[in-house]
Amino acid sequence: MRIEASKLIDTFPINLPTSAFIGQLIEMNKYKRLIRNLINKNQPSSKLPDLEAIVRIVFLLSFLFFLVSQLYTNAKLSPLGRDLQTLNTEKDLLIEDNRLLEQEIAKDNSLIIIREYSEKQFNISSKADYDTLFVTDASIQALR
After folding, report:
1. How far, in Å, are 33, 77, 81, 83, 98 from residue 88 at the CA level?
2. Is 9 exposed, middle or buried (0-12, 13-18, 19+ CB in 10 A)?
3. pLDDT range class, residue 99, cuts 50, 70, 90
4. 123 and 112 in contact (C-beta within 8 Å)?
5. What is the pLDDT of residues 82-94, one digit of tens each?
6. How much is the pTM?
């Protein structure tokens, strides 16, 4: 049963909305429902988080873990790297000193240097007219 709005206005002492206004309210209500449906479609229907949110959370946590581990590793290895560089520099200096000492030892142990040194300091000269003889006779023995 449908009652027109003009008859309702006449029977009731209060001012009721006109039929045009009621039509506008119905149209607005349709748009409200449409907007609510669109909003509700974009929101997950269940209380569980969707897969995309889980992937984002896992990615952010793994990135945070990676960042913290890199900072920790760099903090531990940086002083060790400086110590290693210092030790390598010291090793290179010691290798150079060792090379110089080996050259000096080789020069000092050279037979020619020893001869020249003995001739200059002690006036000892080696004569080339000495010969070494090997005697194979068992009856000849050196004096004691």
Report:
1. 77, 16, 10, 9, 15
2. middle
3. very high
4. no
5. 999 999 999 999 9
6. 0.38
